[in-house]
Amino acid sequence: MDIHRCRFVPCPASAINAVAFTHSSLPAKKSLQKNVQVRLAIGRANGDIEIWNPLNGAWHQEVVIQGGADRSIDGLVWVTDPDEEVGEGNIIHGRSRLFSIGYTTTVTEWDLEKAKAKKHASGQHGDIWCLAIQPPSKGKDTSRKLVAGTVDGNLVIYSIEDDDLKFQRTLIRTPSKKVKMVSICFQSRNIVIVGCSNSTICAYDIRSGTLLRTMTLGSDLSGSTAKNIIVWSVKCLPDGDIVSGDSTGQVCIWDGRTYTQAQRIQSHTQDVLCLAVSADGSKIVSGGMDRRTALYEPMAGHNGRWSKVFHRRYHSHDVKAMASFEGKGMSVVVSGGPDAAPVAMPLRGAGREYHRSLPHLPQSTSLQSASKARLMCSWWGNEIRIWHLPRPASELMDGGADGGAALHKNRKLIAQILVKGESNISSAAISEDGTLLVASTASDIKAFQLDFTDASTGQPKITKVNVPSSVNGATKVEISQDKQWVCWVEEGSRVMAAKVTTTFGGAGITTCSISQSRKLHRVRRQIPKYLRLGGLGAYDRSVTQVAFSPDSKMLGAADLAGYIDTWVLRSGSERQNGTADDDDDDAASLSDSDSDSESEDAEGAEGELRWVRNPKAALIPKLPAAPVVLSFAKQPLAPEEEADGDYSLLAITAMKHVFVFNPLQGTLSDWSRRNPYGKIPEQFLITRDLVKGVVWQGPRAWIYGHAFLFMLDLSQDFDEKKTKTKALVKSGATAGTKRKRGNDGGAGGKMDKHALAPQNVKVEIGGGEWVDVEMGDVEDDAKSVGGAASTTEFEDDDDDDEDESGGELQRLRNGETNQGGVVVNGGELVGGEAVKGEEGKKKGKKTRPAKWWHTYHYRSILGIVPVDIQTPKEGGEESKGLQPLEVAIVERPTWDVDLPPRYFGDGEWER
């Protein structure tokens, strides 16, 4: 595999300003219920809202609600209604609603099912700087209010009753307009605590609007020019005591009954910006401008006194926001700041478990390629950039020592497109020949035609393509391989398809247009009503994966619940003859949101192509977790599939399940039946980062994530797991032995007692080339490291014991390396020429193709896309069933992101 390694694509990383969980904690009984929907919302400075599913530590970024121009998310609040019993042991979990502020006068409610704003409300007051939800009542009064603090010192109330959002009244007006209400929390249902910018913390009764008590911090004596202390964060413990963090770097504890200061802890060297507390009130966590995250616990034998246990610097910049969650086997604090990467820190297991940095890049990659034209398309914000990679990587690398330098220069920015509108681009797609580009936002879809006929300029002529006015935006868009169809997802769950019409004019000029779209009906799933009415509603029916088959005659879509729907392309005569008659399905087979009939699909002129539901679509089993990849193989993976004319549909879930379906039969493939979850390679299963995408090379699936690249050969069966495994390197923050999910609190896994993480050393293999070797794999046979490399050979009855380990040192001993430094497991090289030793010349032995391979050499992968599908050459890899593959790997590490100046300590700031 030839690789272009790129870092020139704009980095989709924006500062984290707010984090919030749907529940701060779950009671013991509720945490055991399977249908409790816990989600984490992350608000960013560019207006994006990310919805994450903790998944007991897997951390799946499910949906990104795109922001827009001059938008920012600076505060998030979840409102969860009380549970309701409906009999027979069934419970309708309280409906969850998400609200946000952005340092404006507006409060926004978000529709997670449609991935866009639902309601806006504002009043006659200044910009809102803080927001809190009134706790639920234990009596008959179930109404709850949103209370907001403003920049002009007002305390205002918003009503959210009857699924509405509206400004109700101004509760408090401070005499001085210079006083800013910066932070807020509820001490009880009717008492709100507000941190201000004038060195005070105020307690108000929202029933009467009266000031109960003012707690004073004094003047700022830290040596700064400011006289007043800003209370950036306030929290209340379960016993009513108050915790505050301020601009002096101090965390203060206040008695909740007398409203007097009980303790002051100088734990930060700069402002304390955020706080979090555990559900039982036994732990306090603070984050500050000095990049520290500090943990506090009560002092033994000293009632009401706290001490700082430790502090760490998990972030490379300010710690601006944090939220805690406990329940369902998890106990974590998630924090974020300008460095854009969320950090999950253990709460209950602090000091005994590792932390974990979550990916700062989106789960859905903002990168696609036009492989036949050697183009690469990326988007970020409202801008699309198109790059051309003129020369193959193999030609450049053959140039010797200057090949690497030439490879970095092998790119040209040929086009930039700005999509007009208030919303950012949510998805984009480019055809394989590079002549059609489609981009979607929350409000509309834009299409462009790229004309490369004028080669003198080196840039394409860009023409706008007509799109039906009835299209109202999309969260996902795809173009078929033959450029005849465009598919997109409206309102989160509605799958639409439209025909692309190409008109040939004079002088070789072609014109494209997109016809009227049609809705593709999904299979109705038998989901109990009490599940659909509670929690997040129909949010889990949101379609996140869409894929066309290689021949463009089948379309697949998958939602967060794990359901897969497929459609096939049929002509009018085929439908009338009953080959794909949707009208035979009863009403129960229609989508939950579809009340209309599918009779319109059976109408139309004879011979006209339409998308109809696959007759076997309902037979495809539900996935055990949300899918992160849905992709059709470029060729059948088994001879029987090719004979039946069926497809191979690969689905990978957030929990690392790997399934291959035969969609026309509605069944698992024979390969999936022979290779269940327990036979998938161990290194793949324990890698914490989720899969982001896949690139096909014949039966080989090149699977990549945020910090890994795996190759799985789906034409071969994997071996049974061995009872003893060597130390395995895991991506993320931890390293060590095999990880068992559920044994930690959802962050980075448990620390090994009296043990350090495996270290890496470099070993020279000759010719000035050095490779990393895992200390965990070092054995007594050290002399083999410096010996001549040889290609791995297997007897026909070899059981591949050493392949299962996947250790870098063992592969080095076997000579499984190439001149580019990429190591391949199993004895077959990719993108290089093997160096064989004397042992490789023995007769009666043969090299076995690799079953799987992996590397963590790449970090912060934005995406991997094929650049050029080359024509097979005689005597090459096609003799093994493989075609040469060239890809572009785009990395966007956080150190390459422009950040504001940060504090280093001792009064010094980054210049």
From TrEMBL:
Swiss-Prot/TrEMBL keywords: WD repeat
PROSITE patterns recorded: WD_REPEATS_2 (PS50082)
Compositionally skewed regions (Low complexity) per UniProt: 815-833
Gene3D superfamilies in the cross-refs: YVTN repeat-like/Quinoprotein amine dehydrogenase
Xref: InterPro entries: Quinoprotein_ADH-like_sf, UTP4, WD40/YVTN_repeat-like_dom_sf, WD40_rpt
Molecular function terms, GO-annotated: RNA binding
GO BP annotation list: maturation of SSU-rRNA from tricistronic rRNA transcript (SSU-rRNA, 5.8S rRNA, LSU-rRNA)
Compositionally biased residues, Acidic residues: 580-606, 793-806
Repeat (WD) residue spans along the chain: 265-297
Region spans: Disordered: 574-607, 727-759, 780-848
Gene Ontology cellular component list: 90S preribosome; small-subunit processome; t-UTP complex
Protein name, entry field: Quinon protein alcohol dehydrogenase-like superfamily
